[in-house]
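Side project, low priority. Logging it here so it doesn't get lost.
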Amino acid sequence: MPWLLLVLGGLFETCWSVGLAYTDGFRRPWPTAFVAVALLASMWLLAVAQRGIPIGTAYAVWVGIGALGTAIYGVLKLGESASPLRLLFLGLLLVAIVGLKLTDR
């Protein structure tokens, strides 16, 4: 169960970080509210998940999921670069996330 909560927290991290692009510096109220709710949910899920997962592992996976999800969104929806090297390093990030899960004790 902690890993499921951690993955959900990482997905909420993706939501708030992507949402920042739509807040116009926190001048748009609805995107700003979305970011605030997603941020709180993300942090809460991380806090609960780390009860059953070492904090170093939990934090690294949480950040990794958020970074990977945000980068994928940027490529697919915001026209960011999808160069082979960038995709390679995003793939390595995914490998690191999975590796941390597989080596968790």
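Brief comment: The mean pLDDT is 95.
Revisit when time allows.
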